[in-house]
# Entry
Amino acid sequence: MTDMQWKKRLLVLASVMAIAACVTSCSGSEKLSRVGVESVIGVWEGKNGETVRLQVDHRFTASGFDWGSISSWSGCPQGEGAGMWAFWGSDPDSPETSSVLEKYVEGDTVHLSFDGVEQGTCVIDLNAVDSGSTLCLSDDIEIPCSLDIKLVRQNSAAS
# Structure
């Protein structure tokens, strides 16, 4: 094999590896983790001071977010937000459909429903990743971490 052939093979191999690395890291795919209510109750904080408090009574408060800027949904509130949270789930009687109901006691996605916001105008989900130790914010049900904001648990005190 000539020196030129060797360089061409090396270049092709490097290109293939670069494409594979990009597909893996750029795909936005995160492995979701199924968690229970007790695993999500508490205060979750992002690296820039964003905070979400998930309470036992299915209420939540959120601060440090500019929902209108970070989300593609037009109805998301500005500044602090509050409302109800619940897991996405499927009813055993109709597994082909999914919904957000307080009766679901576990799941991999927590949906935030903001007070005073018309249903369907703001979709914000918290997706459990890293075995449930991290919640990724998403405004796209198909991309678990679409907003590039990850929250980690600050405490487990239920409110």
Notes: Helices lie at 3-26, 37-40, 67-70. The first strand starts at residue 35 and ends at 36. Residues 3-26 form the longest helix (24 residues).
